[in-house]
Amino acid sequence: MKIGFIGVGNMGGPMARNLVSAGHAVTVFDLDPAHVASVTQAGAKGADSAAAAVAGADAVVTMLPAGPHVRDVYENAVLPNAKAGAVLIDCSTIDVETARAVADLAVSKGFAMVDAPVSGGVGGAEAGTLTFMVGGPDEAFGAAKPVLEKMGKTIVHCGGAGNGQAAKICNNMMLGIQMISVAEAFVLAEKLGLDHQKLFDVSSKASGQCWSLTTYCPVPGPVPTSPANRDYQPGFASAMMVKDLKLSQGAAETFQAKTALGQRAMEMYQQFTDSGNGGVDFSGIIKMVRDG
Fold first, then answer.
1. What is the pLDDT of residue 6?
2. Could you give the CA distance from residue 181 to residue 209 in angstroms, rounded to a whole number?
3. The domain spanning residue 108 has which CATH number?
4. Which of 53, 91, 92, 149 is the most buried (most CB within 10 A)?
5. Can you give the CATH number for the domain in which 208 is found?
6. Element (H or E) spanning 72, and its range?
7. pLDDT of the residue at 120
């Protein structure tokens, strides 16, 4: 299968390399030539524009920073240049409204399209174990699934257009809140004289169990693969958590949902990133919790 891939940075790069490893003919474009080079060295073909990357492709995958970038790329590069019958897969994390608007535009041009944001971070992208939350019609999901399966382990069809984004922002709102709760518990344990490992041994098997504890523990030791053991190198950067929490709170305001903890988590992560920690893994927020 010929695949055009636009946006091959920290997440898109390893995703595109996995498609190459699976035997697909992948053509890539990114505004940063170094990102393109990292994928062409693995066997992909580089393109000098987004339009050139999608020309002749059977599937187009995009991984872009925000809604305005997605709308611009689809309106000006993908939809005018993709071949008839190509399936369009946007893996960016963006607002639900933009995802649905771009999907409507794609359908009006005769294309099958899904929004398929990911969970699993850079490590999951490299290992090909990402979770994809997919929104779009059944036919489009069926066309996209074989491509997604080469980049991820869990593919969940969440419903119609935009529902992949809805699932992603709800999930990451839970993640942001849970990480703060785990950080607060470990800081309280420190003050009470309770060893990190002992708290982990109890809570990882008790009602406090959650992914933020058992996979991404914010203190060194209990989970050797967590970023806490490498000075909080991301992983999933705090600036990206702020982005996702802002998306959740924007959606909450638009659809009149009360998310008080989501709002507070957004404020705390914003404070953490404003203090120069935007490139620190989001689990590093324990440092701010510890400092009061």
1. 98
2. 11
3. 3.40.50.720
4. 53
5. 1.10.1040.10
6. helix 67-73
7. 86
Task: Name residues of the chain where pLDDT drops below 70.
Answer: none
Instruction: Report which of 35, 27, 70 is spatially closest to residue 247, judged by C-alpha positions.
Output: 70
Give dist(CA 47, CA 32) in Å, integer.
12
What secondary structure letter does DSSP report for 230? G
Strand partners of residue 95: none
pLDDT recorded at residue 292 = 84
Q: How far apart are CA 273 and CA 277, in angstroms?
A: 4
What the block records as the tokens of 188 is 């309280």
Rounded Cα distance, 208 and 218, in Å = 14
**CB 281, CB 242: distance < 8 Å:** no
Q: Exactly one of 2, 45, 150, 168 is catalytic; name it.
A: 168
204: helix, coil or strand?
coil
Q: Is 168 a catalytic residue?
A: yes
Enter the DSSP assignment of 76. I
pLDDT for the residue 122: 85
Q: What is the pTM of this model?
A: 0.91
Answer yes or no: do 179 and 119 share one domain.
no
- Contact between 27 and 4 under an 8 Å Cβ cutoff? The reply is yes
Pairing of strands 130-135, 118-119: antiparallel
- pLDDT at position 88, please? 98
Spatial separation of the C-alpha atoms in residues 287 and 292, rounded to whole Å: 9
* CA 190/CA 201 separation, integer angstroms: 15
- Say whether both 202 and 231 belong to one domain: yes
- Is-contact 63 92, C-beta < 8 A? yes
DSSP string, 243-290: HHHHHHHHHHHHTT---HHHHHHHHHHHHHIIIIITTSBGGGGHHHHH
Q: Are residues 14 and 155 in the same domain?
A: yes
